[in-house]
Amino acid sequence: MKKTEDDKQFAFKITTLAGARFGVFRLISKKYGVEKKYKTKWLLTGFVSVISSFLGVFDRLVYALKAKPKNLKDPVFIVGHWRSGTTLLHNLMCSDPETGYPTTYQTIFPNNLFSFQWLFKFVMKSLMPDKRPIDNVKLNVDYPQEEEFALNNEIPFSFYNWWYFPKKTREIANQYLFAISTSKKEVENWRSNFKRFVFRCLINTKGIRFISKNPPHTARIPQLLDLYPNAKFIYIHRNPYEVIRSTIAFYKSILPATQLQDIDEATLISDILWVYKNLMLKYERDKELIPADNLIEITYANLVSKPDEEIKRIYKNLLNDDYMRIEKYVIEYLAGINHTLKDYKYNKDFLAQVNAELADIIVLKGYEVLS
Questions:
Q1: What is the DSSP code (8-state) at residue 131?
Q2: Tally of CA atoms within 13 A in the half-sphere of 303 that contains its CB
Q3: Residue 321, exposed/middle/buried by CB under 10 A (0-12, 13-18, 19+)?
Q4: Is 215:81 a contact under the CB 8 Å cutoff?
Q5: Contact partners, residue 70, CB within 8 Å, separation at least 6
Q6: Least-confidence region, from 50-59, 131-140, 325-334
Q7: Does the reported pTM lie above 0.85?
Q8: What letter does residue 219 receive in the DSSP assignment?
Q9: In this structure, how many other beta carbons lie within 10 angstroms of the beta carbon of residue 309?
Q10: CA nearest 47: which of 71, 13, 78?
Q11: Does the pLDDT of residue 2 top 60, yes or no?
Q12: Do residues 144 and 101 lie in contact, with contact meaning Cβ atoms separated by under 8 Å?
């Protein structure tokens, strides 16, 4: 059923914190501050959070009775900056019937995964669009999704707090992305919760290999290796000019639905450049911790121009798995999408701003500095 304009307007009056434990919702609201103009959205979000938290008691009881997954394969973590092709890669990898992954539903209502899913799925289907506004990528409650929103709704340790409180982006990044001001207790809480989260994903999707696509994990390689010493990593990168252009457009399209604070465009762009720079530098330092055979780097351009070859290379060189086992699923997925490379033009002010912050990284990753 097509959504009316009234439906779309209502969707902006509730945030993805609706699926958060109420204690998490209350804690981060107090910590970062909700601006007066967003009080109605905040109250409606809190109301749903109370309901989902109460019903989450039944979810914990059901989960306790579930058999934990066995004979698991090493998890795979797709990392890279937002808008670098992580979603395309994740969807291709998740076409493998053996994979387990967080669904879009689970990312919003992770505390109601095994009980009352029918109720909250109905709410989600009523409110969410059929496609992402910025790129027309199809959306569905059961499609693979990144887990950061889910982690945020289970415990308050998440970089995605910035989506609600954009004025606090750098403070949140330093605490929950770059771990500069994170306590040992917070890290331990994140560790135990993450392992539980992965088990829940595998049970829900009946997979034996967890496939994660979560850009914030680009800064968490040490923590992930501590949990999964033999984890596999796929790092995907794209021309930084394209990434920054697309990230700005993406954030501006999504923020109206999530924000509980205002942020001006100049600050938003400045923060995007700051996060990009620090995220890429941290990755370059931390990737040395990954055993050579457990990391593969690919480019967005190659993934779009020859996706089947890139997935085959990942299965052969990284996973030591038989690509022929999943080839038909990859072909089926590719038949339903239309990804093409585009030649973008940039104005001089944009180029000057990006070059001032990222010129060294642009060269480091093998791209040309434009002027």
A1: B
A2: 24
A3: middle
A4: yes
A5: none
A6: 131-140
A7: yes
A8: G
A9: 12
A10: 13
A11: no
A12: yes
The first and second tokens of residue 204, run together, are 């829900």
d(CA 158, CA 262): 20
**pLDDT band of 192, cuts 50, 70, 90:** very high
Instruction: For residues 194 and 89, give the distance between their C-alpha atoms in angstroms, rounded to a whole number.
Output: 22
DSSP label at residue 138: B
Is residue 296 within 8 Å of 303, Cβ to Cβ? no
Average pLDDT over residues 169-194: 92
Sheet of 295-299: strands edge to edge? Answer: 99-100, 209-213, 76-79, 232-237, 295-299
pLDDT at 107 over 70: yes
Degrees (nearest 5) of the Cα angle 107, 108, 113?
75
Q: Tell me: the pLDDT tens digits for 18-37?
A: 999 999 999 999 999 999 99
Distance CA 295, CA 233 (A): 5
8 Å CB contact between 179 and 282: no
137 close to 144: Cβ distance less than 8 angstroms: no
Task: Please give the Cα distance from 297 to 255 (Å, whole number).
Answer: 30
Of 70, 68, 89, the closest CA to residue 79 belongs to 89
Portion of the chain with pLDDT greater than 70, in percent: 94
In Å, how far are 20, 113, 122, 258, 344 from 255, measured between CA atoms? Answer: 18, 26, 23, 5, 24
Which residues 6+ apart lie within 8 Å of 254 measured at CB? 133, 134, 163
Token pair 């990755």 in the structure block, residue: 283
Residue 295: which H helix or E strand, with range?
A: strand 295-299
Alpha carbons within 13 angstroms on the beta-carbon side of residue 21 total: 15
Provide CB contacts within 8 A for 144, sequence distance 6+: 90, 91, 94, 101, 102, 103, 104, 211, 213
DSSP state of 13: T
Name the token pair of 153.
């709704």
Three-state SS for 226-292 is HHCCCCEEEEEECCHHHHHHHHHHHHHHHHHHHCCCCCCHHHHHHHHHHHHHHHHHHHHHHHHHCCH
